[in-house]
Amino acid sequence: MKALVFNGPGRSKWQDVPDPGIQDAGDAIVRVEAVTICGTDLHILKGDVPDVRPGTVLGHEAVGEVVETGGAVRGVRPGDRVLISCISGCGRCRFCREGAYGQCREGGGWVLGHLIDGTQAEYVRVPFADFSLHPLPASVDAREAVLLADIFPTAYEVGVLNGRVRPGDTVAVVGAGPIGLAAVATARLFSPARIVAVDLAATRLEAAKRLGADAIATVEESEQLVADLTDGLGADVVMEAVGVPESFELCTRMVRPGGRIANIGVHGKPATLHLEDLWIKNVTIRTGLVDTYSTPTLLRMLIDGRLPASSLVTHTFELGQMEEAYDIFARAADTGALKIVLGEPLHEAVSVRTGEEA
Question: What confidence tens digit (pLDDT) does each residue in 19-40 have?
Answer without folding.
Answer: 999 999 999 999 999 999 999 9
